[in-house]
Amino acid sequence: MGSLFRSQEMTLCQLFLQSEAAYACVSELGELGLVQFRDLNPDVNAFQRKFVNEIRRCDEMERILRFLDAEVRKDGIPILETGENPEAPQPREMIDLEATFEKLENEMKEINNNSEALKRNYLELSELKHILRKTQNFFDERESEVSSDHSGGPTDKTLFMNDGGGPSGASSNLGFVAGVILRERIPAFERMLWRVCRGNVFLRHTEIEAPLEDPHTGNEVYKSVFIIFFQGDQLKNRVKKICEAFRATLYPCPETPGERREMAFGVMTRIEDLTTVLGQTQDHRHRVLVAAAKNINMWFIKVHKIKAIYHTLNLFNLDVTQKCLIGECWCPVMDLDRIRLALRRGTELSGATVPSILNRMDTPEVPPTYHKTNKFTSAYQGIVDAYGISNYREVNPAPFTVITFPFLFAVMFGDLGHGLVMAVMAFFLVWKEKWIASRRIEGEIFGTIFGGRYIIFMMGLFSVYTGIIYNDIFSKSFNIFGPRWMTNRTIYQFQDHGEPAHGTLFTLDPVLDFKYGQGPYPFGLDPTWALASNKISFINSFKMKMSVILGVLQMMFGIILSCYNHLFFGKLINVFCEFIPQVLFLLCMFGYLVVLIFYKWVNFHASMAGCAPSLLIGLINMFLFKYSDNPKNNADGTPCLQNIFYDTQKSFQSFLVLLALFCVPWMLCVKPFILHRRWKASQAALPLHNVDENGHAEGGKVQASHGGGHDDHGDGATFDFGNIIIYQAIHTIEFCLGIISNTASYLRLWALSLAHSQLSEVLWNMVMKFSFNINGWGGIPLLFFLFAAWSFLTLAILVMMEGMSAFLHALRLHWVEFQNKFYGGQGYQFQPFSFATMTDGNKPVDE
């Protein structure tokens, strides 16, 4: 299994890099991604480190690139995704990059400023054009009303014109202002004018149909043209102040029609010229942004790499000569040659004469945990790591999870149709993974689904397999090999009375209705069970027993893996005091139950099924030491469920119970007693040295101190016997109670499977079966709508919601029931310095 079975062996190394070669060497190590550096300056402020100025320059370049990226995306220009990974630029290239970015920024700012000024002028001219056009209508209406006033009675307008006490013809003394205002501010603007001017002004307004572009934001705004008539300078000042308060824009408007026409002609000419200039400005801006869009991703990657290198160099120490950088790093032992080769390449690229040095160091510190994964196994490793990072070099559950996780999911989700839908959806994500990854689709939910596409694909395939075993496809069964039932009785003999109704479910009797000559159904459940009224009883019995068998097997496998941990770390005392009693405890209780399940399946045929002993009652009586001495024929009327399976059952089961009870003090007391004896012996022989829990003097195998992590007690100088007893008691109680609760927890396999199949059957009967029972031509179009509803509910509820539920239950079974038998999960993750994880598209490096 390689490094996937256990984490890779790690070592702490010391690096000596010449100052002129440090940048190139760290760059090569970043491309390799196999080194985790340690901070040798933890007490030094980030702003006081050696390369803080270079990092600030990188921050400034990132700011410019983010500005350019925002401008490119604002114009909707596609960014070129080449998929290339350029090497980190040399330090001298930073000056060229800075000059290029600064030139682009200045050019874009100048273009934006010019464009904004042109758009502001265009907006003002457009508003003035609408004012001249709309106010002409106002003046025409006023002239017509004034002329009608000479022939008819007075109106509100003429009364307003005479409000100052002058003659009726004093309309020439009226002043006016015209401008534009946001459409939503008109009601408040009108009320304010009425209240402040006490009704002595006359307001007319009309909407501008086409939206106008705001030069600052680029958003579309809707405005209205207004004209206000007043009399006197005092009202004029009030009106202008109100317009200023509502941010209305006032424009000059000539009084005579001729002057208005002349101004309108000039405005139209200027708008045409301005449109031409704006078009040329936008074309130039587009050309600049298109050129930038071709290289912006490459620039981001280069700047990120430069910044990451200088961040890493800040973790180094300088020697007294200021010419050598000293660093420490964790790295895999099997990749030391590749690391040395990368250092040699970096030294050659920099032109340094002194080679870089990599020395291994001995340390009592626990190394980080490093598992090599690929795109298929990384998702399973993520499931394991979500529970806790494995201790250094302990057994990794991920390779077993690749099979057991989708299998347990499929046991709960087993349906050929639903599994096929899930597998096809996941296969599409796998098939188009490169294209989807290049699209950089945002969204946490989609990212989670896409990241787990291989898990979902495996869960779909295993669900297809279990669906065939259950003979279940969208709650229907399929007949491939021919049924093995309903041959010995006619259809009328299934009924207690009368003629059978259409679609009636029959109770299958294994004695009367089974073809014993042909044997059982070759693969999976017989399709005839789908028509039986006792289907639930049969399926429940089968799935319940299967859940117990699978649970006991997986828990036993977890305990066996713990033995591998004990042997690997040299903890032989744990093999004798933990592994052996744990195996005996599990086998004496539920291992024996699994044997009885197979024994009952093999030795009790259909004619004996009605009087077969009960597994549940037998298990309860086993721990109560309650047995019946009645003969097997139960002539005295004793219930058949209390019968025994074999003659020596009473004595053998009593022995198993006593052995299981004996395992409890074995796990509780033997290990502390042995540790105490070893400590006393070591104190007599080596009174000045520490002794570990296995009786070895401190300073022995370093690898043993990196072990499975949660069994080490004390320093050997003082032996706290009470602390060890409490620790051992907690683990003993946890294991003994956990075996019982964990076995019961595996019954969720049966419960979730039953719920899924019944929900699928209910959905079919309430939707699809209802549509098939509709007579006449009207059922044809209704069938299409009901099929669409059934498909949607199947996908949303049975595939997605039920799939999520089964996923969470399978996750719990692995974390709690399986991994806690051998998995410590108290390590820390190996986080190498790698450009592959630091350069993520257009996102800055996380400091």
Automatic annotation (TrEMBL):
The keyword Transmembrane helix is annotated on this UniProt entry: yes
Keywords: Coiled coil, Hydrogen ion transport, Ion transport, Membrane, Transmembrane, Transmembrane helix, Transport
UniProt KW Coiled coil keyword: yes
Coiled-coil residues: 94-128
GO BP annotation list: vacuolar acidification
GO cellular component: plasma membrane; vacuolar proton-transporting V-type ATPase, V0 domain
Family, as annotated: Belongs to the V-ATPase 116 kDa subunit family.
UniProt name for this protein: V-type proton ATPase subunit a
Species of origin: Hypsibius exemplaris (Freshwater tardigrade)
UniProt lineage: Eukaryota, Metazoa, Ecdysozoa, Tardigrada, Eutardigrada
